[in-house]
Design brief:
With 692 residues, the protein is α+β, with helices and mostly antiparallel strands.
C-alpha cells in the first residue's frame, strides 16, 4: 500500500472478503480518491481474527495507529461463515415446531437423491427427528383456519426443545403463506419463553407457496442465527473497541448489502455472499470495458465459482442448494461452485485415475510449497513447479515468504508421478489439465446448458488463481477474449465497495390472471415496499437514489415451473401483465400457448438503495509506466521449457501490447500468458487477452 500524508478528514470505505486462504481488503478513500489493497491469511474457524488483522494492516500502512479505526467510514463484508457452517454442519442445535403430521417435510424433501443413478444414499436434516415436534393447528390452502393453534402445546414443545439443549427454534406451519395467523400466535408464545432472540418464523422468512422449500429455508435460517449472529456481534464489538463508529454492512447472496442487524436476523441471505460480490464487480468492470456479456470465474484457494453476465446484468436464481438437501429459496446470483482452487488436492484414486479436489489444503496448512506440514500436492504446487509462479515472489506480494519448490516437487512425485508412472513435470501438467477440465465443465454449465453460446462471451477470471488459468480456460471453452481485471485477487472485496443496498420480499398470490384483483395487488406492492423501506432506513446509510424492481412469477394452467415477469409499478393491470408474460415466455421458450389460462403465483418485490458509484477510472494506470521486463522466468509448457518475460503488471501503460509467453506479477495475483496469446492494457487497466 502507498503512504498517505494525512488522515485528517479521510472518508474511507473498506470492502472485506474472507476466503478460504486469504482475507482480501479493498480500500477507497473518498476524500483523496486513492485506492489500496491488502491481503492477509485467513484464520479458518476464527474468521474475525483474519478480518481484524486486515483492518490493522490498512491502518498501519497509512502510518496510523493500528488500533484506531475512527478514520474508516463504512466497512462492507462478504462472509462465508454461514456457508461454511452449513457445508461442515457446524450449526447450532435447532428445534422445529410444526403442524401435526408434517414433521418429516425436511426429510422427505422432493424425493430426490444425492446420486441420481446410485442405489445408495441418504440425507440427515440439520434438525434431527427428535427435535422436530408437532402441535395441533391447520390452515387450509385458501387461507381459512380449519384448526386454531393450541398454544399450550406450543409452550410445552418449546420447553421440551430447551430441555434438549436447543439454542434456536423454527416455527413452520402449513399454508401460512395464505394466512399466517396461527403461526404468528405460536411464534409469540415461543418468544415469550425462549431465552434468546433465535426464534425464526417460516412465514416471516418466506411467505411463499411450496412447503419443503419454505421449511428448508426457515430451518437453515434458524440454525445459522446463533453462528452468524455471534460472529458478527464479535466483529462489531472488536471494531467498536478500535474506535470504529461507522456502518458495518453485510453482502447478501443477491449481490446487494444489508445492515449487520438484518444479517443477524436473516443469516440465510448471506450464503455465497463473497462470490456474489465478485460477480457484481465483474459486471460493472466488464460493461465499462465494452464487454457486457461475460462469463466470470473466481479461482480461490478452495473453489472455482463461475457465473454468467448477459447485457451487463448478473442472472438471479430463485433458489439454490448448499450441498445436497439443504435448499435455500431466496433471490441470489446464479453461481456454480466446484472444488477446484489453488489449494485443491491432487490424488490418484483406487481405479488409477487422477483426481483434483474437492478436498482442499486451504490456508492452514496450505499447499505443500507453503512448508506448513501438508505433504500432498495441490494445484498451486503444480503451478510453482512448472514456473508459472516464481517461488521467490509468491502470491500475496511476499506475504507468505519464499515458496518451497522442492516440497512441491516431492509431493507431486510421491502422490501423482510415481503412482501413474509419469515424469514429475508431466504429472504437474496433468494436475493442471484435470483442474482446467473441471473448471471448463462448470463454465459450460452456466452457458451452453442455459442456452448461451460461450463463444459470444468474454471470460473474466478473478480470485488469486484466476490469472494463472485464463489462457487454458479460453482455449478449453472457445472464448475469444479474456479480461483480467486490474486487481483480480481482491475483486470480491472491490464488489463489496460497489454493491448497492437491496432488500427483497415475496408474497404468494396463486390466482388466475383473469380473476386477479389488481387494486389489491397494488396495495400488496405498497405493503412490501413499506417493509423493505424500513430496512433501508434502519441501516442508516446514505443513498444517491432508490429504485424498485417488481416481478410476477407466472405460468400456464397445469404447469409446475414459473417464469419471472418484470413489470413497472404503473403497469400493474391485466392487459399489461398478460402482454409482459407472453413476451417473457416467448423469449424463454420460443412460443406462447394460446387458449390456456394464465396463473399468477407470486409477487416479487425488491427495493434498491443506490450507493455512490465507484469511479472505475481510479483503477487505471497512472503516470508514464514501465514497459521493460523485470527479467526472465523458465516455464514448463507442453513438455519443454520456455523463457517467459516477467512484467510488473501494475506499471504497464495503457495501450501496451505483449505477446506470450509472459508472466505479469502483482501483489494480489500472477497472470500467465500462454505462448500463442497476446495481452494489451485497456484504459481502465484491464488486461485484454486474445489468441494470436
Amino acid at each position: 500500500m502507498s503512504q498517505a500524508p494525512d488522515n485528517q478528514g479521510a472518508r474511507r470505505v473498506v470492502g472485506v472478503d474472507v476466503g478460504g486462504t486469504f482475507t482480501d481488503l479493498f480500500v477507497l478513500d473518498e476524500t483523496s480518491s486513492r485506492v489500496d489493497i491488502v491481503k492477509v491469511p485467513s484464520t479458518r474457524g476464527e474468521e474475525s481474527v483474519g478480518f481484524m488483522n486486515g483492518i490493522a494492516r490498512v491502518l498501519a500502512a497509512d502510518g496510523a495507529n493500528a488500533s484506531d479505526a475512527s478514520s474508516l467510514a463504512t466497512i462492507i463484508h462478504g462472509t462465508t461463515v454461514g456457508t461454511n457452517a452449513l457445508l461442515e454442519r457446524k450449526v447450532a442445535r435447532t428445534g422445529l415446531i410444526t403442524t401435526r403430521g408434517f414433521r418429516d417435510v425436511l426429510e422427505m424433501r422432493r424425493r430426490d437423491r444425492p446420486q441420481t443413478w446410485g442405489l445408495r444414499g441418504g440425507f440427515d436434516p440439520l434438525i434431527p427427528r427428535d427435535a422436530r415436534l408437532e402441535v395441533d393447528e391447520r390452515v387450509l390452502a385458501d387461507g381459512s383456519v380449519h384448526t386454531p393453534v393450541d398454544l399450550e402445546q406450543v409452550r410445552k414443545a418449546a420447553a421440551a426443545l430447551l430441555a434438549q439443549g436447543c439454542e434456536a427454534v423454527c416455527v413452520f406451519f402449513i399454508n401460512t403463506y395464505a394466512n399466517p395467523a396461527n403461526e404468528r400466535a405460536a411464534v409469540a408464545a415461543v418468544r415469550a419463553v425462549w431465552p434468546n432472540a433465535h426464534v425464526t418464523s417460516a412465514a416471516e422468512v418466506l411467505p411463499e407457496i411450496r412447503e419443503f422449500e419454505r421449511a428448508s429455508t426457515a430451518s437453515l435460517n434458524a440454525a445459522l442465527q446463533p453462528v452468524v449472529g455471534r460472529y458478527l456481534e464479535r466483529l462489531d464489538g472488536d471494531l467498536r473497541d478500535h474506535g470504529f463508529d461507522g456502518e458495518l454492512l453485510i453482502v447478501q447472496s443477491n449481490g446487494g448489502v444489508m445492515s449487520r442487524q438484518t444479517a443477524c436476523e436473516l443469516p440465510v441471505k448471506t450464503a455465497l455472499s463473497g462470490p456474489a460480490a465478485g460477480v457484481i464487480a465483474c459486471a460493472a468492470m466488464a460493461t465499462a470495458a465494452g464487454y457486457p456479456d461475460v462469463i466470470t470465474g473466481d479461482i480461490g484457494g478452495t473453489s472455482f465459482d463461475v457465473s454468467l453476465i448477459a447485457g451487463g446484468r448478473a442472472a438471479l436464481a430463485a433458489q439454490t442448494s448448499i450441498a445436497f438437501g439443504m435448499v435455500v429459496r431466496s433471490p441470489m446470483i446464479q453461481i456454480e461452485t466446484i472444488g477446484a482452487g489453488g489449494g485443491s488436492i491432487a490424488s490418484v484414486d483406487v481405479g488409477g485415475m487422477l483426481q483434483v479436489g474437492p478436498e482442499s489444503a486451504g490456508s492452514v496448512p496450505g499447499p505443500a510449497c507453503y512448508g506448513r506440514g501438508n505433504q500432498r500436492p495441490t494445484v498451486t504446487d503444480a503451478n510453482v513447479l512448472l514456473g508459472r509462479i516464481a517461488a521467490e515472489r509468491p502470491l500475496g506480494g511476499g506475504l507468505l515468504g519464499a515458496l518451497d519448490v522442492q516440497k512441491a516437487r516431492e509431493a507431486i512425485r510421491r502422490f501423482v508421478a510415481e503412482p501413474l508412472g509419469m515424469d514429475v513435470l508431466q504429472a504437474a501438467e496433468a494436475i493442471l489439465t484435470v483442474a482446467n477440465a473441471k473448471m471448463a465443465g462448470a463454465m459450460r454449465l452456466v452457458s451452453i446448458e442455459k442456452g448461451h453460446d460461450p463463444r459470444q462471451f468474454a471470460y473474466m477470471p478473478f480470485g488469486g488463481g484466476g490469472g494463472l488459468h485464463v489462457c487454458d480456460m479460453m482455449r478449453e471453452v472457445g472464448v475469444a477474449t479474456g479480461i483480467v481485471p486490474r486487481y483480480p485477487g481482491v475483486t470480491s472485496a472491490l464488489g463489496c465497495v460497489m454493491a448497492d443496498m437491496r432488500h427483497d420480499a415475496v408474497q404468494t398470490l396463486n390466482q388466475p390472471l383473469a380473476a386477479l384483483d389488481f387494486a389489491q395487488l397494488r396495495a400488496l406492492r405498497s405493503d412490501l415496499a413499506g417493509r423493505c423501506r424500513q430496512r433501508l432506513d434502519f441501516a442508516g446509510v446514505r443513498f444517491e437514489g432508490v429504485r424498485e424492481e417488481i416481478a410476477l412469477d407466472m405460468l400456464y394452467q397445469g404447469q409446475t415451473h414459473t417464469v419471472a415477469v418484470p413489470l413497472q409499478a404503473q403497469a400493474l393491470d391485466a392487459a399489461a401483465t398478460q402482454a409482459a408474460f407472453e413476451a417473457t415466455y416467448r423469449a424463454e421458450f420460443g412460443r406462447v400457448l394460446d387458449g390456456i389460462p394464465i396463473r399468477v403465483m407470486n409477487l416479487r418485490y425488491a427495493l434498491v438503495g443506490v450507493r455512490p458509484k465507484f469511479d472505475l477510472t481510479l483503477l487505471a494506470p497512472q503516470g508514464e509506466g514501465r514497459t521493460e521486463p523485470l527479467g526472465e522466468q523458465p516455464v514448463y509448457v507442453k513438455g519443454q521449457w520456455v523463457q517467459a518475460l516477467r512484467y510488473d503488471r501494475l506499471r504497464l501503460p495503457v495501450g501496451h501490447r505483449i505477446t506470450g509467453p509472459a508472466i505479469f506479477e502483482q501483489a494480489d495475483t500472477t497472470v500467465w500468458l500462454d505462448p500463442g496469446f497476446e495481452a494489451s492494457v485497456d484504459r481502465l487497466g484491464n488486461l485484454i487477452l486474445r489468441p494470436l
